[in-house]
Fold:
Amino acid sequence: MPLAHFFLRERLRSGDVAVDATCGNGQDTLLLARLVGARGRVWGFDVQASAIAATHALLEVHGVSSCVELIHGGHERLAQFVPPGVRAVVFNLGYLPGSETPLTTTPENTIAALGQAAELLARGGFILICVYTGHEGGPEEAEAVEEWCRALSPKLFNAWSSRQLNRPAVAPYLVVVEKV
Structure:
């Protein structure tokens, strides 16, 4: 999502720590790796072996695989691998485009992962959540994400939602959570 990439380019610096909670085809992981550079670290998660393989191949082609650790596992296991002090966490909810398997992210796993991500964030760090509602289970996951955001303490977090006004109601939208 272009708006998510805008935020990442504006806020991430060389040496930062970042997470791609849903690698998919690896585009977000690649951007994170380029932004944090050799001095930084990126963790990438996906439950599908094909997504991990595609991401690894993309990182290799672009020469940035050395700063990335790929985890073949769900984002609900984030805290098992990632240390505190994270600057950015990116979620693309829904399913892997072009995948042969109908796997989607679920409200339960996503909310667990968001809670862990919020705990791991450094002050000034942020979570970008690209929410897709145009598939089965998507509207329920979107509602769970929005409820989670509404429950965050305004003393500790800012939370925003950004939708395109000239797109259908099922178009993807971005949720941004910042640790203050």
